[in-house]
Each structure stands twice: as C-alpha cells, then as structure tokens.
Design a protein that fits this description.
alpha/beta, TIM Barrel, binds 6-deoxy-beta-L-fructofuranose, binds manganese (II) ion
Length: 429
C-alpha cells in the first residue's frame, strides 16, 4: 500500500494527543452513561460510518467569474486518487471515491482500479456529465441532453451514460448518478410535458442497461444552469421518474439543490417512506448551490437529516440503504483540508443523531409536549462527540487532529514541487 503521509508522523502526532483524548473520552463516557448510552457500543457504530469523496472535489473550484488555482493541484485522476488516499489515511471514514466522466476518463481502468487500491480507496457511484460539451463531441448539449428535442442528441447522451456504466463495472462501482442541467431559460422555450416524457424515455434506455445489482441515482436541482425551469427540479419530479423507471431507480438528495429554508429533513422522511431514498451529496449553502463545506453554515440541518436517517434505520424502514457522498467545491481553502473536516462533520452528525433519546422523543411527540420534544433533539445536538471521533480515528490508524497532522506532513508543499501550477480560469470545478 502506498501511504502518502508518513506513518511515524501520524503515530507521533497521536502519541502527543493521546492523554487529552483519553481523558476527554472518559469524561464523555461518564456523561453518556448518565443518559444510559454505552459509549463503546456507540463507538463501534460510528466507526462503521463511511462517506465517499467526490473526485472533482480535490481540485480547487471556482465560480463562473473566476478560479484562483491552489498549489499542487491534481493534474489527472491518478493524482486525484492519491489526494483521496491522503484524506482516507487521516480521517478513516472516506474509503471510497465517486468519479465523474469524462473528467476522469483514462485508457486503462484496471490500472486506475489498482492505483486506487494501492492508495487504500475503492470506487463509489459513477457520475455522468451531459451538462457540458467535451472536446470533439459531435453534438452540443447547449439546448439539453437526455431531454433534447433532437433524437440524435438524446442518443448521444444515452450512449455516454451507458459508457459510464461500463466504466463503473470495471472500477467496481454499483451505481450511476444522473444529474442533467436540462431545462429552459425563457417561458415558452420548452414544452414541459414532452420534455419530461423525453427524460423518461432516455432514462429507460439507461435503466435497462444497469446490471442486476446496480442502482440509478436521480439527482434533482432547483435551478442552474437553466434559470426558468429545470426538468428534474425537485424531489417530486425525481420521485415520479424513479417510480416510473422501477425499483433500481432512486432519488438522490444534494443538500444544496433546494430553495433556502426548504425542509430537507422532511423530504428525506418522504423518500424513506416511498422506499426511494438513494442517498446524498453533502455540502452546505447559504443562498443556492453554493457547495460550501458540510455543516459550515447550518450544522443543525445536517443533524436533523441524520436524525431522520437514524430513526429510519432503528425502526427498520424497508429498502433503506442510503449512499453517502460529499459534493463540494473548494474555492478558497485547501480541498484536502475541507474534505477532511467535512467528512468528520458528517460523521459527527451521525454520532449526535444516534444520541437522540428516541423513547423520550416519541413520548413527548405523542403527548404534545412540544418544548421537551425539541429539547430532546437539542440535547443530542449539543453533545460534543469530538473525543469519540478522535478515538475512532486513532484506533483505526488515522490522526487525532487530521488537519494538524496533514499540515505537519508538508504534503501540499511536496505536491507543489511535483505538480505544475495550473493557470487561472473560470469554471464550476
Ligand atoms: C450539480 C452537481 C451534480 C454534478 C456536480 C458536479 O450541481 O451537484 O452532482 O455532478 O454538481
Ligand atoms: Mn451534486
Ligand atoms: Mn450541485
């Protein structure tokens, strides 16, 4: 295995942290014991939590106005995988990478798979891209892809998705995520119903090509790049499509793809009820699809999403097996640092949601004790589970404080010496 961060450095970092982490962990254990929570059981549960890293997230992002490149950015998917390996080495809860095509296209996928294995990561859902034109692409997606009025463009977009499935098979993936930017910018530009029917027809062809043990994740987004209407703009259209396509199709919730203040946790509950929750693209936002670091703006919302997920798991919700992925863009931070802290934030919310006293909550709900029901959630949310997460990481060979260990390693500087600086450009990723 190719470990990018020196194991000795991590061991020394952890040795320095051990005394305080152990003391804090014991104190937390005492606190939780008073709430009848066995910290060791909790630790085992949280240690099994995993969230995938987006391959496109390790490069510096940008906006449509500008991109300010960072140092030592990955040059290609092999470098991206290497960076993802660093993240996994330090946080130990990101064992897979979600690749995006054609961005991550290579000539030999066995080589890529072996490269990933060597860096201690595997592959999660493959993402197709029919929202931008690629060099040498015969037909343009300017006016749509899977829903384009021209059958030739639709066929090209379908063929790309089929190729993604084929690549995914070679990489060991088990799901295809389809997000399209199709929609319209002016009233009258597109016929809403015919456009949706074309979406279903194209996706039917993709769905039929899925291997038996694969899933198709349909990702909705309210707006952008289309600013008047989007074909799959919300969970309603997504659910309708997933139900029409069949059992392998499910709805993926990207937290940034809703109007501000939307009750996303309730959408999650509805999709669980419908047995159609595919999973998540975690990120945070203030205004729109900001792709900010998970939990950086509204950690309580993330906790409330996990509250629904833990409730679903504990009550044995049917066909409940969500996939967890990050989907963020890092414009002003080191992407590795942002992805590490985000993965830990998501893991933290899971741990906090496991702390909700569900028996008490149900009793308060059933007796209409509004204040105590709300307080029951807040008690779990206010619990600082940092020492628990540190202990889990240290026991798994990760770092007590991933960002500090990463900075001490000098990895970014080393990469800056090897990987040439990219020029400033615009673009979402
Ligand atoms: C669209 C989206 C989708 C894409 C990714 C780059 O906004 O969330 O998941 O594949 O960004
Ligand atoms: Mn997304
Ligand atoms: Mn997005």
């Amino acid at each position: 295995m190719t470990q990018q961060i020196n194991g000795q450095l991590i061991a020394e970092h952890n040795a320095q942290a051990a005394a305080r982490v152990n003391l804090d962990y014991e104190t937390l254990g005492e606190q939780l014991a008073r709430r009848n929570v066995d910290t060791h059981v909790l630790k085992d549960q949280v240690a099994r939590f995993a969230v995938a890293v987006p391959s496109w997230g390790v490069g510096t992002g940008g906006t449509r106005f500008a991109r300010f490149p960072g140092l030592g950015e990955p040059r290609h998917v092999f470098d991206k995988i290497q960076d993802c390996g660093v993240i996994q080495q330090l946080v130990r809860c990101t064992p897979t990478v979600s690749p995006h095509f054609p961005w991550d296209k290579v000539s030999d996928y066995q080589e890529l798979r072996q490269h990933a294995e060597a860096h201690g990561v595997g592959f999660d859902a493959v993402n197709s891209n029919t929202f931008s034109d690629q060099k040498d692409q015969p037909l343009s997606y300017k006016f749509g892809s899977l829903t384009h009025a021209d059958a030739g463009v639709r066929a090209q977009a379908v063929a790309h998705n089929l190729e993604c499935i084929d690549i995914g098979k070679q990489l060991g993936s088990k799901a295809l995520t389809v997000w399209i930017g199709d929609g319209s910018n002016f009233p009258g530009q597109s016929h809403f119903r015919r456009q949706f029917e074309r979406y279903l027809d194209s996706n039917r062809q993709i769905y039929d090509a899925l291997p038996a043990d694969w899933r198709m994740f349909l990702e909705h987004k309210m707006f952008e790049p289309a600013f008047y209407s989007t074909v799959i703009q919300d969970w309603g259209s997504s659910l309708l499509a997933a139900q029409t396509l069949g059992p392998k199709a499910r709805c993926l919730v990207d937290l940034g793809h809703h109007a501000p203040n939307t009750n996303i946790e309730m959408i999650v509950a509805r999709l669980v009820h419908a047995r159609k929750l595919a999973g998540f693209h975690f990120n945070d936002s203030k205004y729109g699809d900001d792709d900010l670091d998970s939990g950086s703006i509204n950690p309580f919302q993330l906790f409330l999403v996990f509250n629904e997920l833990v409730d679903a798991a504990q009550t044995g919700a049917a066909e409940f097996d969500p996939a967890y992925m990050l989907d963020q863009s890092h414009n002003v931070t080191d992407p590795i640092e942002s992805l590490m802290t985000s993965a830990v934030t998501v893991q933290r919310c899971y741990a906090q949601a496991l702390l909700v006293d569900r028996t008490a909550l149900t009793a308060y709900q059933d007796s209409n004790d509004v204040l105590m029901a709300a307080q029951t959630l807040k008690q779990a949310f206010h619990t600082d589970v940092t020492p628990l997460l540190q202990k889990i990481r240290m026991e798994a060979g990760g770092a007590a404080d991933p960002v500090l260990a990463y900075r001490a390693s000098g990895y970014r500087k080393q990469m800056a010496a090897i990987r040439p600086a990219s020029g400033p450009s615009s673009g979402i990723v």
